Structures are given as C-alpha cells and as structure tokens.
Amino acid sequence: MKSLKNVVIILTLISITVGLVSCEKIPPMENTTIRGIEFTSNGLLTFSIAHVFGNQAIAFDTTQYQTITDTIKISELNYYVTNVTLTTEANTKVNLKNYDLVSYNPNQPTNIIVSGIPAGKYKSVTFLVGVDSVRNSSGLQTGALDPANGMFWTWNTGYIFFKVRGRFGVTGSYGLDIGGNADINGASNAMEVSFDLTPFNKTGNAATLNVVFDVQKLFMSPNIYNLRTDSNQIHNASNPFIPKLKQNIINSFSIQSLQ
Amino acid sequence: MKKASILVIYSLLVFAIVSCQKDEPVLPIARPPIETPIDTIGTFKATPYFIQVPFSLPAFPEQILNPLTVEGVSLGRKLFFDKILSRGEKQSCGSCHNQLFGFTDNGRQFSLGGDGQVGLRNSMPLFNLAYVEKFAKTNHRFFWDGSIPDLENHVLAPITNPLEMDETLPNVINKLRNSPIYPALFKKAFGSDSITTKMLMHAIAQFERTILSGGNRFDYYRAGLETLSPQEKRGLDVFLSEEKGDCFHCHAVGPLTTDFSFRHNGHQTPDRGLGAITNNSEDNGKFRVASLSNLVFTAPYMHDGRLNTLEEVVEFYNSGAIRVPPADPVITKHSNGLQLTTEEKADLVAFLKTMTDTALVTNVNFKP
After folding, report:
1. pLDDT of B318 strictly over 80
2. What was the pLDDT predicted at B146?
3. A121 and A89 in contact (C-beta within 8 Å)?
4. For position A138, what pLDDT does the model report?
5. What is the mean pLDDT of chain B?
6. B201 chain-A contacts, CB cut-off 8 A
7. Does any CB of chain B come closer than 8 Å to the CB of residue A240?
8. Mean pLDDT, residues B31-48 taken together
9. Most buried of A171, B24, B215, B327 (most Cβ within 10 A)?
10. Of chain A residues 180-209, which have a CB less than 8 A from chain B?
C-alpha cells in the first residue's frame, strides 16, 4: 500500500512537472512583437529624405564640402524614386508602381508618399533609383516622367535616373548623369535600394520612414570617387565609371528611424 | 482569255486607285470619331484621318497609341513648319527638311543651326517613316545611328540638339502655352489646352506618318503598267546581278528599297554610328541602309553627305569602298571591286532615277 501511495505521489509530481514545463513551452502570443510595419488597412508610407554631406544639410552653390580627393560645391541633385516595393513576412512582394522625381531643394522637405498598401505585415522595402526598363524604353511619359523635366536623354531615348552637378577644385565642374538601360557590363543602371524593416515596430495605417541621402558617401564609400582622375562628366549609359558610382549611390541611402 | 480579262480588270482597278490618288485632295471621309488615348483625356474623341496610301506601298501600319486624326495631323503639320520650336524662333523642322528636296536640307552636306552651328551628319529624307516602325527588326530605327525607336521620340532630339534648334523642352512648352493659337489647336487634337511634351510629340509624329511616297515609274513597271527604257532595264540588271552591282541584298527590290538594317558600307569614318548607341565595337561605322526612292531630290548622299552625285555613289561602290572588315560581308565579298564598265555605271544611274515620285515634292498636304 505504501508503495502504491509513493507511486501516486511520484506520478503526481511528474505530471505537475510536465505540466509546468509544457506551460513554459506555450509560444508567446502573436503580435506582441511586430518586427516591421503592420498596416491595418489601405496603408500610406512616407519616405522623408534628408539630404546631407556628412552631418551638414546640403546648401547649393555657396557651401564647400571636402571629399577625400576634392573640394566640391553642389548645384543640382535630382533622381527618380520608382517602384516602391514592400515584402511581407510570407515573402510576397507588393509593387506600388510609383514614379516620383526628387528635385532636391534645400528650402523644402523631400517627401515621397505611396498609398494604397494592402493590410499586412511587411518586413522590408525596396525602391529603384531610376526607371524600370519597360517605362524607360517606351518613352512618351507624362507627370514626373515628362521629358521636359530635364531627366531625359533626347538624343537616345531613355531617362536620366540620377543627376548630380556642381563645381570642384578651383575651376572644375562636374556633371554625373546615370541613366539609360545597361552599363558596360550589361547590368541595369537602375539602382535598387533595400531597407530591412525588422529592427522597427510600427502598427497603423500610416508610417514615415526617415531616410538619409549622404553625398559624402557618394564620393567616398565604398569607392573613392576622384573627380580629377575618374570621369567628371558622365552623360551616357556606358561610361566606364558608372558601375563604381552606382555602388556609392546605393550606399548613400540609409534608414534612420520609422515613425 | 480568262487570264487576260482578269488582267484587264486588275489594271483598271489599279488605275482607278491611282487616279484617285493623283487627282483628288486628301479629304477626311465621314467615319465615327475615335478616342485619342493620350493620358488624362478620358473620353475625348477626334476625327479619324483617312490616309490614302499609294498603291505600291504595303498596308499602312496604324498606331494604336497614337492614331491619326484630322486635328492631330493638321496640328503636327503646323508645328513642323513653325519656328516657335527653336531657340530665338530661327528655324522650323521644315528649314532642314525641305519638301522640294525630298525633305532634306537644300543640297547641303551638313545642316546649320540657328547661329550657324554646323551639324555632324547629312539631313535625312522624311517619307514612308511609318514603315520603318513596321518593318525594322530591332528597336534601332530612326536617325542615321538608330538611336531612337519611334517617331514620337524622334521629335525631341532636333529640338534640343545644341547644333540644331537648340531649344529646351520647358521653353517650347511655355511658348506653345502662351501662344494665341496653339492652346485651342491642341484642345481640338487632344481634348485639353494644357499642352504637354507628349502632345507635341504625338502631333508631329502623326504628320510625319502621313508623308508617304510611292507610285514611281519603277513601281508601275513592277505592276506591269509602265515600260523602262533599254538603258534603264540594263541598269536594273546590274542592280540585280550578284556579280555586278549586287545592290539588292541591302536595298530590297520593292517599294521601300531598304532592308531597314544598319550596315558598314566600306567607308572610312571617325563616326561610330550605331556603335555609339549600342556600345558594341562591332557596330562601329554602321548606319541606316537608306531608301533609294527620290534620290534625284536628296543629294548629297551617305550619312555624312560625302558624295555629291549618283555617279559618285555608283563609283564609290564600284571602286571606292574598303573591302575588308568591319565592312559588311556584301561589300567584302567583292574583293576586287565591282569592275563595272562605264556603260554599266551609267545604266545603273539611269535605273536609280526611275524611282522618283514627283508627287512627294508637290503634294499640297505636305506643304506649310
């Protein structure tokens, strides 16, 4: 009898232990960690882009900036932001098919707004600095893609995706235009910028990504771009310095915060 | 007997069509209005333009995204001849594309810009351009170097080229918007008086698509309705002979006399041509194979206007071309030149002149 009692006690203890352990193994409630953006309905995403050189805001023409190789001034900074694409947790891509032209103006904030985002949880976002090949070769566009915006090579149909112009050294001037379809290696000249959203948590139907575009990185990182020895005038798709400049442009974008 | 009667009926039909073309002005035929699918215009409709196609030409390729309308063609024609498109209002498209010269530049080797800037290539004739879009096998279609794929887009280059009209697109659009006449004309053609670059491109492209040329003596000859002189026939034989002229590989026999390709014809030139567009060194020195119609109007010849007469052109292919790569295989295979006799060269020139359509330079629908 005593032994039976012991068995009961042991069995009870085992059950309790197993029960407790199982309790600990119950997965945490969903939604306690979002890791990304969860749009509740018809979401609206704003890219608020700050244009800086290192830690200074960019002013046109007057202010001098120091790259590793040159002293430069900036007089024009334009680029296309198109095809904003969000990726869900289940790796479904939602392309919002936007075509926006950023013409940086030191006196105005740069905001790009995409809307109509389906409800869901999104872990990353990408956009093209440039125009996709379909629109690029079909020409004849209006709005941000109107050739009159000056971001179009009229002698060889195709958009200029990214343009930065200014002066360097004592008398030099630079004009770096990247566009057209492919570079000398056959790679697309449209540059894909990609941001991981999982370090952030945001729920709602509107979110703002605070993005920085750093011209210092454009001339320094990961490649040093020397305006005296590399090309200081790029005006066609096949200039040999385009591949290294594209790497720098992509790297010049970074994400600061999500609100 | 049956065959003969069919032939007679056929001839009468062709004649009927041809007479219509030659005698009657082009009038819009009453058809229901069509939508012009320019952005934002919605349900706007304009009058369809009935294009009369010379009997020798293939079916006219309709452009679904920019259909010909009476209002659009008329606006395009007005713009084509208006100096408002150039900086300082010094030149129109028609300045360097003169109808009397087959829409080329008055016999000039290189065109001059508004301030006397000298261009780099010879002004190209403008006719049957709609067929370039129809038959070209790649996106390289317009200009000597094939830089532009469609007629809408080709409008922008001469307007903005510093060596040509040297104007900016925002200025052109502003001038048109502030003009006392153009907003109303754009509204008629595209349903809106807020003029855009796209409307400008569409209108001029529409007018240029209506410039057709066909029904020259050689076209009638192929239809059995015209005879060639013995000399012209001998010239045709030289044209068609692989051992002699060997012209037909690139200048296909037919109403268009080009295969729409880009080839290196054995010239020496620093101009990279198609190669500068594709960035492929194998394309260096390749240029559009030109049509051989209306050559009597369009001298000088070649991409850089280096040859002044048809005799010089024939002599170039006879003895002047460089017969090693990068020249085209059709050129290099004649390693000792064509070795045409003096008579054969004269015959060939006589034959080339049969492909002359005087209606091109007189048609009132192509005048300012």
Report:
1. yes
2. 94
3. yes
4. 65
5. 90
6. 140
7. no
8. 66
9. B215
10. 184
A251-255, B60-64, B80-84, B227-231, range with the lowest pLDDT: B60-64
A 111-140: CB under 8 A from B: 137, 139-140
B159 touches chain A (CB under 8 A): yes
Reading the block at residue A50, the tokens are 């700050």
Alpha-carbon span A106 to A110, nearest angstrom: 9
- What predicted TM-score, i.e. pTM, was given to this entire model? 0.81
In chain B, CATH 1.10.760.10 covers: 11-212, 217-360
Phi, psi of A125 (to 5 degrees): -140, 140
Chain A residues with beta carbon closer than 8 angstroms to that of B39: 142
Residues pairing with A44 in the sheet: A206
User: Does CATH number 1.20.1250.20 belong to domain B217-360?
Assistant: no
Pairing label, strands A56-57, A120-129: unpaired
At A201, the amino acid letter reads: N
Q: Cβ of B156 and A184 within 8 Å?
A: no
Single out the residue of A193, A113, A190, A184 nearest to residue A159, CA to CA. A190
Distances (CA, A) of A103 to A75, A84, A179: 11, 18, 16
Identify any residues that bridge with B307 across adjacent strands, giving them in sequence order: B301
> Does the CB of A150 have a partner CB in chain B at under 8 Å?
yes
Q: Cβ–Cβ contacts within 10 Å for residue B90, how many?
A: 15
Mean pLDDT by 10 residues, chain A (259 residues): 55 49 46 79 95 94 93 97 96 95 94 95 97 75 88 86 96 94 88 96 95 96 95 90 97 95
Chain A: give the shortest CA distance to residue B363, in Å.
30
Domain limits for position A118? 2-258
Q: Output the pLDDT for position B34.
A: 62
| Fold of domain B11-212 | Cytochrome Bc1 Complex; Chain D, domain 2 (1.10.760)
pLDDT bracket for residue B20 (50, 70, 90): very low
Instruction: Work out the minimum CA distance from B327 to partner chain A, whole angstroms.
Output: 24
C-alpha distance from residue A31 to each of A24, A27, A36, A120, B66 (Å)? 18, 12, 11, 12, 52
Q: Which residues pair with A112 in a beta bridge?
A: A47
Q: Using omega within 30 degrees of 0 as the cis cutoff, is the peptide bond preceding B300 cis?
A: yes
Instruction: Point out the residue among A140, A148, A152 whose CB comes nearest to the CB of B152.
Output: A140
